[in-house]
């Protein structure tokens, strides 16, 4: 019998880890509490409009490579997933003067010489610290984690750059409030936007389909505890059943990770996991009668408008849209969302539809179907100092691994609040497990 690894959580990070481990020949059991795999990467269901595709940065990103690998597995099984994978060219745009203004690699136009100077200074910072800015190991930039995005902008950039350039991009990329967010996250995310930007559609469905063919996927099965059993890890699931594995990858949000792995954690690890936090989000998914864009596009609201919108994703097509229609996903700003998490759906839909109409001319009267979602912890926060905490967490993990503990963690809360961050974290955890287990069954 070959080496056996259990992966707790079948979101993007867990699915990525499972595929990497199974591809190396290990036996993998994937436990998912919900009735379907995919986690937050799963798209809209049959009773509501599909979400707009997820934005992915970079020409050679982790998501693109994983999609190619999963698609190859599907072809090898002579079976295609129900919703074929799509990585389509996408764009970034800013809504200005009643029209969408493309941002070519995050290079739009404002302020002429002032903006050119701001971009030049940001790029100089990126070049200076390029050896530290590694999306596969973001904690390497811990020495840069001493300032917020706003503090960096005030120190290095021309007046006006914070409000007109940096803040909208922070909101649109999920970085967070500039006064709070670490400049490390901003610098990490800006770099891939210099290349091409992609939109991922059907990502979770494809990965779940591929994982089901090479791993034991148990949906509706919650892991309750991981315990040491000699050189093995004993897994207890809901209902009291237990089984043993050679290693475990925990790919669930920090509160759940802390609870399920508590018997194996050191006090500093428990403390560091408890310090992780997430931003709330109220989200509107809508099917539109008319597609306002020819390709998937993330729209950054104009800073001067003062709208409580983090970003708006638009795309042509969609299950519930007519042939010429499209889909929209509007994500409200965290502060606005926090105040309305308990508001009735009809009130939220009315407010969000009004915001959508202001951002996309005529959209309010062209809605075909709308669905509101609310998430108390939608995106992990990375305030200044968080990457230093992650560096400490990684050092403790390395010490535990050296002593023989075979417990690994994955998730966007350990990297960056993006789909690609979750994937990179899952692949990293799998590679560490393969290294410790000898890389072969």
Explain what this protein looks like in three dimensions.
This protein folds into three domains: 4-84 and 200-277 and 382-437, FAD/NAD(P)-binding domain (3-Layer(bba) Sandwich); 107-191, Guanine Nucleotide Dissociation Inhibitor, domain 1 (Orthogonal Bundle), CATH 1.10.405; 278-379, Polyamine Oxidase, Chain A, domain 2 (Alpha-Beta Complex), CATH 3.90.660.10. The chain is built from 13 helices and 17 strands. The chain has helices at residues 12-23, 62-76, 113-128, 149-156, 161-172, 183-190, 203-214, 254-260, 267-274, 334-339, 345-359, 386-402, 419-437, and strands at residues 4-8, 27-32, 54-57, 86-96, 99-102, 197-201, 216-219, 223-229, 232-237, 242-245, 247-250, 278-288, 297-300, 309-316, 326-332, 367-380, 407-409. The strands form three sheets. Strands 3, 4, 5, 6, 12, 13, 14, 15 and 16 form a nine-stranded mixed sheet that branches. The protein has a five-stranded parallel sheet with strand order 7-2-1-11-17, covered by helices on one side. A hairpin with an 8-residue loop joins strand 13 and strand 14. Residues 105-110 have low confidence and may be disordered.
CATH architecture assignment name of the largest domain: 3-Layer(bba) Sandwich
If you average the pLDDT, what whole number results? 84
How many domains, in number, for the residues?
Answer: 3
Determine the structural class based on helices, strands and strand pairing. Answer: alpha/beta
Shape: globular
Largest sheet: 9 strands, mixed
CATH topology of the largest domain: FAD/NAD(P)-binding domain
- Hey, roughly how much beta strand do the residues contain? 15-25%
Number of helices: 13
CA(first)-CA(last) distance: 8 Å
Number of strands: 17
CATH superfamily of the largest domain: FAD/NAD(P)-binding domain
CATH C-level name of the largest domain:
Alpha Beta
């Amino acid at each position: 019998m070959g080496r056996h690894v259990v992966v707790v959580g079948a979101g993007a990070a867990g699915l990525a880890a499972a595929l990497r481990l199974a591809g190396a020949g290990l036996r993998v059991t994937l436990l998912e509490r919900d009735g379907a795999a995919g986690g937050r990467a799963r798209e809209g269901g049959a009773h509501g409009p599909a979400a707009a595709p997820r934005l992915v940065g970079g020409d050679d990103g982790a998501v693109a490579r994983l999609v190619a690998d999963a698609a190859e597995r599907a072809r090898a099984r002579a079976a295609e997933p129900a919703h074929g994978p799509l990585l389509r060219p996408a764009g970034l745009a800013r809504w200005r003067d009643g029209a969408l203004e493309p941002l070519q690699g995050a290079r739009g136009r404002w302020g002429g010489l002032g903006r050119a100077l701001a971009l030049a200074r940001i790029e100089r910072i990126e070049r200076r610290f390029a050896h530290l800015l590694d999306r596969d190991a973001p904690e390497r930039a811990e020495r840069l984690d001493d300032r917020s995005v706003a503090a960096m902008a005030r120190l290095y950039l021309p007046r006006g750059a914070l409000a007109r350039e940096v803040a909208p991009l922070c909101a649109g990329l999920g970085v967070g409030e500039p006064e709070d967010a670490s400049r490390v996250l901003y610098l990490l995310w800006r770099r891939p936007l210099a290349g091409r930007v992609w939109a991922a559609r059907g990502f979770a469905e494809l990965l779940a389909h591929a994982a089901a063919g090479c791993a034991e996927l148990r949906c509706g099965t919650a892991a309750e505890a991981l315990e040491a059993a000699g050189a093995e890890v004993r897994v207890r699931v809901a209902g009291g059943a237990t089984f043993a594995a050679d290693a475990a990858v925990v790919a669930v949000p920090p509160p759940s990770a802390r609870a399920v792995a508590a018997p194996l954690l050191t006090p500093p690890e428990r403390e560091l996991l408890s310090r992780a936090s997430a931003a709330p989000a109220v989200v509107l998914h809508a099917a539109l009668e008319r597609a306002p864009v020819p390709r998937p596009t993330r729209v950054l609201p104009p800073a001067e408008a003062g709208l409580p919108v983090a970003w708006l994703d638009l795309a042509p097509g969609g299950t519930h849209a007519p042939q010429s229609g499209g889909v929209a996903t509007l994500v409200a700003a965290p502060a606005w969302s926090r105040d309305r998490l308990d508001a009735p759906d009809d009130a939220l839909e009315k407010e969000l539809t009004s915001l959508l109409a202001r951002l996309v001319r005529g959209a309010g009267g062209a809605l075909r179907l709308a669905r509101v979602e609310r998430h108390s912890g939608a995106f992990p926060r990375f305030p200044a100092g968080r990457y230093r905490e992650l560096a400490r967490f990684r050092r403790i993990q390395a010490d535990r691994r050296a002593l023989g503990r075979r417990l690994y963690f994955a998730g966007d809360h350990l990297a960056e609040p993006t789909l690609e961050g979750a994937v990179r974290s899952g692949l990293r955890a799998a590679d560490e497990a393969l290294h410790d287990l000898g890389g072969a069954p």
